[in-house]
Amino acid sequence: MGSLFRSEEMTLCQLFLQSEAAYACVSELGELGLVQFRDLNPDVNAFQRKFVNEVRRCDEMERKLRYLEKEIKKDGIPMLDTGENPEAPQPREMIDLEATFEKLENELREVNQNAEALKRNFLELTELKQILRKTQVFFDEHEGGVNPTESMTRALISDDSIARQGNLGSVQLGFVAGVILRERIPAFERMLWRACRGNVFLRQAEIETPLEDPSTSDQVFKSVFIIFFQGDQLKTRVKKICEGFRATLYPCPEAPADRREMAMGVMTRIEDLNTVLGQTQDHRHRVLVAAAKNIKNWFVKVRKIKAIYHTLNLFNLDVTQKCLIAECWVPVLDIENIQLALRRGTERSGSSVPPILNRMETCEDPPTYNHTNKFTSAFQALIDSYGIASYREMNPAPYTIITFPFLFAIMFGDAGHGLLMTLFGLWMILKEKPLAAKKIDSEIWNIFFGGRYIIFLMGAFSMYTGMMYNDIFSKSFNIFGSAWKIHYNSSVIYDEIEMTLNPSTSDYSGSPYTFGLDPVWQLSKNKIIFQNAYKMKISIIFGVLHMLFGVVLGLFNHMYFKDKIKIICEFIPQLIFLCFLFLYMVLLMFIKWLMYYPTDDKDKITYSPHCAPSILISFINMVLFKEPNKVEDCADYMYNGEMGIERFLVVIAVICVPWMLLAKPIYIMRNQKKSNYMVSHEQMNAATENGDAEQPAHNNTVHRVEGGHGSHAEEDLGELFIHQGIHTIEYVLGSVSHTASYLRLWALSLAHAQLSEVLWQMVLSKGLKVQGFEGGIALYIIFSIWASLTVAILVLMEGLSAFLHTLRLHWVEFQSKFYSGIGHGFQPFSFETILDSAATQTADE
Amino acid sequence: MAICGHKLSLCGLILSVWGIIQLSLMGIFYYIRSVALFEDVPGLEHEGTFDSIQKFYDDADQGYLQNAYNCWIAACLYIITLAFSGHQFWVNSRSSLRV
């Protein structure tokens, strides 16, 4: 197994595969997922490659499967996802699959076409039925009952108009009946009126039940209309308008008996159609259910085949056309596994020639590959989102596993909120498998679920720091018995409302509370002042240690890459600078903690709070070489010889700055000169022998320099100086600003504690202070408000902000000390990732 | 009979479990007169000074006891909520299984 401390050792390999065995071998490698293939024909476009045809066939199969899937989804049939992972089928099975899909698709299309035709038929019949029913009403309304034609004449044209028209002979009124979309009615009516100058008569009735449009299968509302008119010209005009409005016209017999007969016929035909339609639907359903059982499986198979051919397209063809040549990046430790997989592939394909895997020398940067498991992968993702480590660089992930939750917990210190977070994380960890199998698409959920181990650790660490701060939902627990006693007499209590505890008196028993902060501070007025002093110092101490750790990790980097110059010219001055200034400040804090204590004794006044110096002021004085301010009865310095030691430390630290800035460029410059001198010397000799000095001299220099001193010498010296300058300034200014930056640990911790206290006082306290038994009901309601606010504001929002600040402390303050993060990730050819990305893609659609 | 949806009943379940645990614990702490909870005891908002020490102690004792009972009452109400949302949850999950 590889370690997490550095990325895996990679090597470039050349792989010779026999043409027949290539497919099976690549399939095995895809299952293994440890090989990253390089594109050996980058200039060849996608359509000129060897296996274009196969890739296209796979695309076609995928299209058919997507069509099937769409149909299955339309019918709401559950797709069976057994989660099983079928192996990539043999190439010859591809034809079977293709045939199956072809058959299915054709069958489905045919069924759909038939169903559509049947539905259209059905729609027409229902519309006709409606027309017959509705028009019956129109006819009935004006029915004299004898002659339909007569009745119509009478109904439409009043008696006197008949009298007027009498001499023109009897007039035959015609009519057309049809169905139109309900929303088109007003326009239709107006159009008819205008085009026919009011000479037609329109009656319409709504069809109550919505009808299904066969082509879109939407539910649409329609109306039945009937238009009466006079004469052929009007008839053609009306018909044209109907056509324009996409109204369907149906023949409607004039005689009531005919109509009745027709209605009967329509009814029986509808009955028949219904049975046929039901059978068609059943058939379609059967086909789809059968397909739904296998569809996920088929998708996996097709995607695997496609991935294999896609990979084969990256390979080079041997001259003899008998074997394929591939180049791939491979983790050195896994070569055995890869060999085994290749052998399996060969056996499966029945080929006798074993594939050949041989390592190649290369000057390219290998990809970075970290072997992660489900626990470490989340932490590795935090690191990788800043920048993927350069090849074989120190990987900050293993340290982050501890430092990340710890720094988070310093800011999020509350045992109650920590407990909630831990329970959430624990639930996700325990229910890992069922939750992962559910495949919830929500992005936020996936972030939480991916970081379940981080959340769990952050919660657990927060519980610890919460105990330390003695904060549980902003309340303290007095488990071991407070170390404070109250000695006030009753007169003091009567007169004064606010009292503070004085540790110099016998109020304080002298032996501190067993674990964490004394609970008495929760009720005291000077709690924040007391805690600030403690939390500020703690955050600076942890910050300096964290940065120092980062610098030391840099040493391991330099040692691994055997970069002596960097150790001498960068690591040592960096370490000295940080230690002599900031670690010394941390030391001063401990000295202050140990030396000074509260006392009212006049003899011990030099050790009383009155004389305790401010660490920040003394640190500033130290850097600026200033004398400390004189305070009465106090010693100027904490210990003898402090001034001398401090001046020495500052001077050395300042010397480190030019050391960092200049040592490395100067060293490189001198080396370069030396080599240049030697080269030119040799060339002089060569030139005298050959007679022409110009041409070879140039070539030789380049060659020698490249071979002898790596890439350094090629760099422009000016660039080198600038680079080193930026680096130095970044480090020197960085250590000041980064140290201050760690104060965010204190600031956020204070903010969190205050916010939770305010929430308790403003919300839950209101419920607790209700007098009498109504208080119980008030508490019931207010508790739920308090609980939801606690989760929303204190756990989610504050947790997110503390998380982001922790992330910043790691990315900027910690990793800038040693991590370059300019590598490129290892992207192995793996079926798992390909299938996952395909699944998420379909989910997005 | 489902009144609440799936999510609401789950929310009610979690909230009532939390409420039962925290409120019954708080009831115990009030009952044993925990100093940390002193600030939330009702009936002690006096302006300036107290009439007598004994009166103050009596008020405080009374307030502590009252709050302990109130906490337990609220906890009992949450037990009812738990039962209700548990039933709802059960109904929901059963109906979702049936479909």
Automatic annotation (TrEMBL), chain A:
Transmembrane segments: 401-430, 450-469, 538-559, 571-595, 645-663, 777-797
Chief site of localization: membrane
Keywords: Coiled coil, Hydrogen ion transport, Ion transport, Membrane, Transmembrane, Transmembrane helix, Transport
A Pfam match: V_ATPase_I
Residue ranges of coiled coil: 51-135
UniProt-annotated stretches for the region Disordered: 690-710
Organism superkingdom: Eukaryota
Membrane topology label: Multi-pass membrane protein
Localization, UniProt: Membrane
Role summary: Essential component of the vacuolar proton pump (V-ATPase), a multimeric enzyme that catalyzes the translocation of protons across the membranes. Required for assembly and activity of the V-ATPase.
UniProt record similarity statement: Belongs to the V-ATPase 116 kDa subunit family.
Full protein name: V-type proton ATPase subunit a
Organism: Photinus pyralis (Common eastern firefly)
Source lineage: Eukaryota, Metazoa, Ecdysozoa, Arthropoda, Hexapoda
From TrEMBL, chain B:
Keyword Cytoplasm listed: no
Membrane topology recorded in Swiss-Prot or TrEMBL: Multi-pass membrane protein
Keyword Transmembrane attributed: yes
Transmembrane segments: 12-32, 72-91
Localization in the cell: Membrane
GO molecular function, one term: RNA endonuclease activity
UniProt KW keywords: Membrane, Transmembrane, Transmembrane helix
GO cellular component: membrane
Family: Belongs to the RNase K family.
Record-linked PANTHER family: RIBONUCLEASE KAPPA (PTHR31733)
Protein name: Uncharacterized protein
